[in-house]
Amino acid sequence: MPALFIFQTPIPNPMRKDLQDLWLLAEPYVRDAGFDLIEVQFGREQRGMVLRLFIDRPEGGGGSGGINVDDCERVSRDVSAALDVADRISQAYQLEVSSPGLDRPLRRERDFARFAGESARIRLTEGVEGRRNFTGTIRGAKDGRVEIACDGRSYELPIDDITRANLIPNWDKEFARKDDREGAAGDATLASIENGALHE
């Protein structure tokens, strides 16, 4: 019998156990559709429990433009079916799939490396040099650490200690891009597009 090899992206840390399980379940379907799973969120909101997946096109992965409604619908359909079979969530919930938006979440080392030169906000759990919040320019990422230029100096932050990290939108650049590509996929309006499926 031939050996079976399964490629699996390392789970971003730190992450709650329930989110880790949902990430591992959803990520293969997102990848099979040709996208990267950027973030998984699951919690109670005003309308009830919401499972939210953020997807994006992989760097250098081909294709053009950003994430569109058809992309979200395809991933939502595939992941929804997998969730129904796995029966991982006991209560009713809403599944939403969307683009990461301009304030894109950053979790993995490759995410930070991809956006070197961009501005970001990073919050740590334990902190570095008595500090947990950093806002500045990403200089790079390697060996499990991200380098950020902040308040006139450089810090190396352990990625395993990052609670939350997001890009800071450069609105001047985005408005200029929108003027150059009016109506193109991937502009700021796409961040609000979501595809929902109710599960009971």
| Assembly state (oligomeric) | single chain
CATH hierarchy, class of the largest domain: Alpha Beta
- Taking all Cα atoms into account, the compactness measure Rg is 18 Å
Helix content: 25-40%
Computed structural class? alpha+beta
Shape: globular
- The CATH topology assignment of the largest domain is GMP Synthetase, Chain A, domain 3
Cα distance, first to last residue? 40 Å
Query: Count the strands?
Result: 9
Biggest β-sheet: strands ordered side by side in the sheet: 7-6-5-4-8
Quick structural gist:
25% of the residues lie in helices and 36% in strands. It is α+β, with helices and mostly antiparallel strands and 200 residues long.
